Amino acid sequence: MIDYIQPDYEVVRNKDLCVKCKVCVRQCANQVHAYDEKRDALYVDNSKCVNCHRCVSLCPAHALKIVKTDHCFKPSANYTEDIIKDIYRQADSGGVLLSSMGTPKSYPVYWDKMLINASQVTNPSIDPLREPMEIKTFLGKKPEALEYLPDGSIKTEKYPNLELKVPIMFSAMSYGSISKNAHLCLARAARELGTFYNTGEGGLHEDLYEYGENTIVQVASGRFGVHPAYLRAGSAIEIKIGQGAKPGIGGHLPGSKIGEDVSRTRMIPMGSDAISPAPHHDIYSIEDLRQLVYSLKEATDYKKPVIVKIAAVHNVAAIASGIARSGADIIAIDGFRGGTGAAPTRIRDNVGIPVELALAAVDTRLREEGIRNNVGIVVGGSVRSSADVVKAVALGADAVYIATPALLALGCHLCRSCHSGRCNWGIATQIPELVNRLNPDIGARRLVNLVTAWAHEIMEMMGGMGINSIEALRGNRLMLRGIGLSQKELDILGIKHAGE
Amino acid sequence: MTHINAENMHFSALTQMVKSADSEVTIDNVLGQRYIAAGVRGKHVVINGIPGNALGAYMDGCAIEVHGNAQDAVGDTMNTGTLVIYGNCGDTAGYGMRGGKIFVKGYAGWRVGIHMKEYGDYIPEIVVGGSAGAYLGEYQAGGRIVILGIGCEDRQCVGDFTATGMHGGKIYLRSRFVPDDLPPQVEVSRVTDKSELAPLVREFCSYFGYDADELLADDYIVLTPAAACIYKRMYTNRPM
Questions:
Q1: At residue B97, does pLDDT exceed 80?
Q2: Residue B232 has pLDDT above 70, yes or no
Q3: Which of A65, A446, A500, B201 sits at a 20 to 30 Å CA gap from A37?
Q4: What per-residue confidence (pLDDT) applies to B8?
Q5: Is A132 among the domain residues?
């Protein structure tokens, strides 16, 4: 059969620099590099290269680089190279196209169309190096008012809340989609940072129960690894309804990724597909959702907040309003630019809405209905920097979920090939020799570095605005101005244009 | 031994009493209270009346008897234990259950045994005396479901779309009728070896007074998936 698809990338070796140490051969799980002993020469198979930079990063002589091929189709702005290649692939296989990580398509990034305020002269800015700056936040239902007993103690019923030292959590990535070492990095970093990581829907590995206080356990339609000890192990329980990268689509971990350890954690046989369809077939209404929320609360004695995670879709404000009335303590909204370990390409690239618009719409709606205090709001789905965090909080979020930046901190190079299961960086793989490449101590340190740096930047930006508490920034949309946005977009975001 | 009169009692009060009760609990006048024994471990609970949804959800080793009908989501995600229902039960009984047993004397609603899965020594089992509704064993990944079809010997004892997405476990039907809309990955065969079936049918009869030998003498068919990975050929990896 003729191969219609030519390689996207070319591995370029500088033969003057190459010392033939063969690190590239040993490091590439995709077998791009090969050494011919007879000819004492190194060869590459460009067709296998996913452009993950493992060989480039580890080459001691800096003899390698990967370039986009300049081999091309006749240029067309309509039938682009990607579209032509996808048609070839599907004509070859008859399969649904599968991709990983967030969409690479050029949709507007509203974070980059909002600018943050700063104080000048009046209401002077605050220097976080010398003055107190509070970025601790509490996630969950808040009482409407406080009542006190005669002895001064609080009479009002207090609801279970998550206490976050930084308004940043690591979002759900299941054991199975990422490696145990990646989970260990996230768990250790969450503990050190005083925040939380999320198990995803793949259960909790027995070695990670010790990090329970900094763990959010997830319950999805497939109920993998869900049992009373698991529910009690974490500090909060998240019901996964949807994921930004694939709204309306469930999870499907192929049997090939269910090895012994994943099998034990998910509590399903080795080699069996792990299917968790998009619908929870016991949830067809907000009342049904309430039933799952309360059955989880009952099973954990009302000690843990329950999060409901949804994808940002067209009617997200109305959906969130329902969730806020379901008894859930926290709503997590995942935008369509969020990552995934595997999703049908067309869904990832075409379904859902940007999280910035979803967040603004939800916060506005809940305020209008007087139920914003019923729930905490967490947003994820492409929060890429501390500036995005500040903008999210100013739009109304209590905290954010990050995943792609966390993986980048662990060495991910966004080659978007997670679904192959051969991640050369030891993150999105279950192959032991690849997993071992990710050192949990180093990985945790890099995550702590990243979030600590962001936290400091958040404090700098808050200080610049003359705000010394993250709670005072939350929903403070006066601190934002739009740039290059239409009136409709400004109205939805609830912000003025720059210069107004 | 704790006796609880649940008349006009809110579910949260009742579930709290069940949790703090000793290991033998009898509840009278139950009328729709949800989440009874949810997440509870190691108790014998006798329920007189009609418990509400999510009875015994996530439960870990309780023995529950219901003298009445049960509603939806009985034994949702249960780990171990036994649920015996001296009546009918609603939809999604045994959703995602991983271990333990559910016995229903009468009929069961839709989506019984959905997402049921087994692991190691955990093999969940559901036996329904009467018929079961549509989507029986949907996405079933393990465990055993037995539909005895008592009283519907002259017709199909399951609803439409049986075993949709099934990729593990077994569904036994005491029936001559093969469901006519089975998905392609599900295989049907006549049961010749009843050694796995017999103890389940006998236990069912021990609760509800049927003649086990008589029931076991009948013809059974069994549904099994041909593959544990049913969707692997569906996708094309795209390196973008």
A1: yes
A2: no
A3: A65
A4: 95
A5: no
Q: Model pTM?
A: 0.95
Q: Looking at residue A268, what is its pLDDT?
A: 87
CATH of the domain at B173: 2.160.20.60
Question: Using CB atoms within 10 A of its CB, is residue B198 exposed (0-12), middle (13-18) or buried (19+)?
Answer: middle
Look at B122 and A267 and tell me if their CB atoms are within 8 Å.
yes
Q: Which residues of B touch A273 (CB under 8 A)?
A: 141, 167, 228-232
* Domain span at B145: 100-228
Q: Looking at B87, B118, B152, which one is the last position of a domain? A: B87
- Contact between A254 and B230 using a beta-carbon 8 Å cutoff: no
pLDDT score recorded for residue A471: 95
B229–A271 CB contact, under 8 Å: yes
Count the domains in chain A.
2
pLDDT exceeds cutoff 70 at B240: no
The Cα–Cα gap between B187 and B221 comes to 10
pLDDT digits (tens, 9 = 90+) for B41-63: 999 999 999 999 999 999 999 99
Domain count, chain B: 2
- Provide the domain limits for residue A69: 9-95
In a domain, B9, yes or no: yes
A95, A112, A146 - which closes a domain: A95
Chain-wide mean pLDDT for chain A?
95
What's the gap in Å between the CA of A104 and the closest CA on chain B?
Answer: 8
Phi and psi angles of residue A426, each rounded to the nearest 5 degrees, phi first: 75, 15
Contact map slice: B 140-159 vs A, CB within 8 A: 141-142
pLDDT grade for A251, boundaries at 50, 70 and 90: confident
Looking at beta carbons, which residues of chain A come within 8 Å of B143? none
- Domain assignment present for residue B238? The answer is no
Mutate which of B12, B80, B119 to disrupt the A interface (most A C-beta within 10 Å)? B119
Asked if B122 and B224 sit in the same domain, the reply is yes
**Cβ–Cβ contacts within 10 Å for residue A70, how many?**
6
Check residue A144 and give its pLDDT.
85
Task: Work out the angle at residue A282's Cα, subtended by the Cα atoms of residues B37 and A175, and round it to the nearest 5 degrees.
Answer: 85
Residue type for A327, please? G
Could you give the CA distance from residue B124 to residue B94 in angstroms, rounded to a whole number? Answer: 9
The position carrying tokens 């509870």 is B40
